[in-house]
Amino acid sequence: QVELVESGGGLMQAGGSLRLSCAASGRTISTYSMGWFRQAPGKEREFVAYISWSGDSTHYADSVEGRFTISRDNAKNSVSLQMNSLKIEDTAIYYCAVGKTAWIPATWARAGSRYEYWGQGTQVTVSS
Asked: Distance between alpha carbon 41 and the CA centroid of its chain, in Å?
């Protein structure tokens, strides 16, 4: 069993930056891929970013490509999401998740079914 705790969310003006962190406990996540998803009010949960176990492979949703960066620190059993140039439409609850495997092909990384454990989420609100 893995427990994931997200932090770093908050209120930010459009154009600003936030850095989300996800700390894992209960089991090492160093041999598993990780992902970030988000869910806005009234919308379906959507994929944001993915990183392989080694950090060598990353994928992003088109909507965040070039603005968000996913990274991981296996020594600290954690993964982060640096969010720059925030837009109002980035407002959502952000969740980190542990992949079922060490590596997931890009076309599959966007599917929530490829992830096994999920955090409780952290709220990100972007204002104008």
From this structure: 18
